[in-house]
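RECORD TYPE: inverse folding
INPUT: structure tokens
STRUCTURE:
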């Protein structure tokens, strides 16, 4: 009977551990965790947004010079993220440390999320994109994770974590996102 209890307890502990969510823990020197970027070419160039850095600072940019985009595989080097961060010129606010940690932990789940099909929604609305960055130790670079794209075209990350991140990030100010 005692062996049976030990076996049942061991199975129970294993199931609890196996069912735990994986959380994202980025490197201490990760330059950028979250980004909002709005671009519109309809009536002249509008190019602005904000980034949230490793300290939880929400830093704004307007017409960044030589902004660096992810490569064709969707990855960026730490140097490219750091360069883009140097294009910010305004401290908009600082996120509470506890809140920042809570939301950065959701990056792993968002990175695993499937994307919806991209659909055309309008014209001359531009492109409003929310994203996050997940470090990939195998490549030593950061995966650009699309959370939501709105405007002329729409596309959504379908994970529950991405949905939660989008709702949170919209609080910092974004254009043309629907509730």
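DESIGNED SEQUENCE:
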């Amino acid at each position: 009977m005692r062996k049976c209890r030990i076996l049942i307890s061991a199975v129970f502990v294993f199931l609890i551990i196996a069912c735990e969510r994986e959380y994202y823990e980025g490197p201490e020197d990760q330059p950028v965790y979250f980004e909002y970027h709005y671009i519109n070419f309809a009536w002249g160039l509008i190019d602005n947004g904000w980034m949230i850095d490793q300290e939880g600072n929400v830093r704004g940019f307007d017409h960044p010079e030589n902004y660096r985009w992810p490569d064709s595989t969707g990855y960026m080097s730490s140097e490219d993220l750091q360069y883009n961060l140097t294009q910010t010129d305004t401290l908009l606010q600082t996120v509470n440390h506890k809140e920042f940690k809570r939301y950065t932990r959701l990056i792993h789940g968002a990175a695993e999320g499937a994307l919806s099909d991209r659909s055309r929604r309008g014209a001359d609305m531009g492109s409003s994109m929310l994203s996050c960055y997940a470090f990939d130790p195998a490549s030593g670079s950061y995966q650009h994770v699309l959370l939501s794209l709105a405007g002329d075209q729409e596309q959504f990350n379908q994970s529950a974590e991405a949905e939660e991140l989008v709702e949170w990030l919209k609080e910092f100010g974004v254009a043309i996102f629907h509730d």
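NOTES: The beta strands are 32-40, 46-53, 57-62, 75-76, 90-94, 119-120, 127-136, 141-151, 153-156.
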